[in-house]
Structures are given as structure tokens and as C-alpha cells.
TrEMBL record:
Recorded superkingdom: Bacteria
Name of the protein this chain belongs to: Adenine deaminase
GO MF terms, alphabetically ordered: adenine deaminase activity; zinc ion binding
Function text: Catalyzes the hydrolytic deamination of adenine to hypoxanthine. Plays an important role in the purine salvage pathway and in nitrogen catabolism.
Cofactor, free-text remark: Binds 1 zinc ion per subunit.
Active site: E199
Amino acid sequence: EELLQLAEAMPKAELHLHIEGSLEPELVFQLAERNGVKLAYSSVDALRAAYAFNNLQEFLDVYYAGMSVLLKEQDFYDLTWAYLNRVHQDHVVHVEIFFDPQAHLERGIPLDVQISGIRRALEQGQAELGISFRLILSFLRHLSEDSALETLELARPFYDQLDGFGLDSSEQGHPPEKFARVFARCKELGFRITVHAGEEGPPDYVYQALDQLQVDRIDHGNRSMEDEVLVQRLVGAGLTLTVCPLSNLKLCVVKDMAQHPILSMLKKGLKATVNSDDPAYFGGYVNDNYRALIQHLPVTRDHLYQLARNAFEGAWISDDEKEAHINELN
Ligand code: ADE
Ligand code: ZN
């Protein structure tokens, strides 16, 4: 109880959040009505009932269908503004969010519509809620590297509105090495990169992310725990892992929360952090993720501080900003 209060009240950073995954069923229906989009579900409850997944792909199918209601700049704004107001309640003070432009380009939504709506909300969140932000363009790994390269080229007019690049979607069969050229180009352009690796994919995909992409962070990284040499490399490099407990539970990456590896990760010296991934689909925002950990694992005060500190240390902000946030924790 006391731990839960501490976790809830701590100022926090969220580093692994797909903005399209914060699309709540209520907003899906509101936007469908506003945009005249026909849905395959008759009610909010019917849609929510479809949120049961056995693996990543089953979730992704529902996730890409859900975002079909996002058409206008205002829709991207409303989505992002709803997320910021929600996490403000959780005492989140810094967010680094992904968006999936290829999923919208495929539906004919121009990149400037997407970026402008998302950023208008982010800037308002900074001004009115005091939430600082970074925006990360994430490539879809089930598509080709050429499609990612095209998207990177299309984003050229917006490079000053982007802070980094990511890689998400179906992991198995789409290893990081498939995108070696595109991420080399991102690095040449001076961007930071972070890729989903070791969520469902093997430890080898995490090695590839390190050796072939030179990533600055790893998203998830759970399966690194199967390889002690890899763990020691990640520890040595001080690489941040953006771990997502409720996501891992809902996508059956872990059998139950009591078996979640996050405390073992901390014990080994890995810089694990707590994130919500796709909160509308996985049953909760950042504080809900902390609550689940506290309920099912022997979490201590020190663990909570460590997790919160890791997130600020792994954030793409200046050392002074990191220090200021970390001082607020103590
Ligand atoms: N896209 C949105 N959430 C994702 C996740 N957890 N893994 C891979 N791709 C995603
Ligand atoms: Zn993710």
C-alpha cells in the first residue's frame, strides 16, 4: 500500500509508448462517428472484449484495425492529447513516444498530417501540463527495408521535428539486420535509435541490434535473460531496456506476473524501466504497470527508485535535465 503510493506519486518518465496503442475504445467509436468510418464492432464493450491475445501478432492485427479511425490532423491531436492528460494523472513528467507512420501512409494519410497533430498535442502538453517530450518515428519490420528507406526520405522535411527512430511490429522472422542500411543512415543523420528486440525474438536479435544497428536503447529485451554473456554486455554498455510488464503478460511473453523477470534484471545490473507499450490494449498506463509489479513481486522502495531513475537516465535528454529529474525523486 505504502509502496503503491510511492510508485504512484514519483515523477516518472515513459520511454516505450506507441501513441496508436493509447487509442481507447471510447475514442475509437467517437472518431469513427466523426469520420464516418464503419467499425466491425457494435459497441465499446464488444471492441474491448476483442482485446485478448495469445501472442504479438494477434494483438497487432487488432491494433492496425483500431487505428483505421485516425484520418485527420485533429484525430492525431485528440489521440495524443488524451494520452498526455491520462499520464499527467500518473505523475509522468517526460514521455518519449513512438508513432507508426507507414501504417497511416498505407491508408493515404500524409506524414505532415500525422506529425503535425501529434506534435501540436505534445507542445500543448509541455506548455500546459509540464510534460517534456521526444518523438520517435518507428519503422514497421514486417515491411521491407526499401519501404523504411522511402519513409526516412519522406520524413526529410520533418527531421527537425523528430528525435529518433525505432523498429516495431512482428518480430519473429524480421531480424534487426534486415534494417542495417536504414539505421546506418539514421545514425549518419545524427539521430538516436532504439529497436524492439527480444520480446518474442531470440537473444541473437538483441546481439544484432547492438552489433549491426548500434542501438542506443533496447525496447523490451526480455529474452536477453536467456544469455548470460549478452546480459553482461548490456550491463557493461549501460544500455537501457524499456520493459513493459502488462504488455508482456497480455502477449504471453510471461506466463504470469509473478514470473516477470524485471527484478532479476535489476539484480544483474540491467537498466530496466517500466513502461506501458500500448496501454489501451494491455490494461493500463504506467502506474497500473507499477501496481501489477508491486502486487505480484517482492518489490522494495529501492527497486521503485531504481526503476524511476533508470528511466530518466535512459531518456534522450541532457545530463542537466537527468540530474534535475533524479534529484526530484529523492
Ligand atoms: N507495435 C505496437 N506495440 C508493439 C509491441 N509491443 N511489439 C511490437 N510492435 C508493436
Ligand atoms: Zn512496443
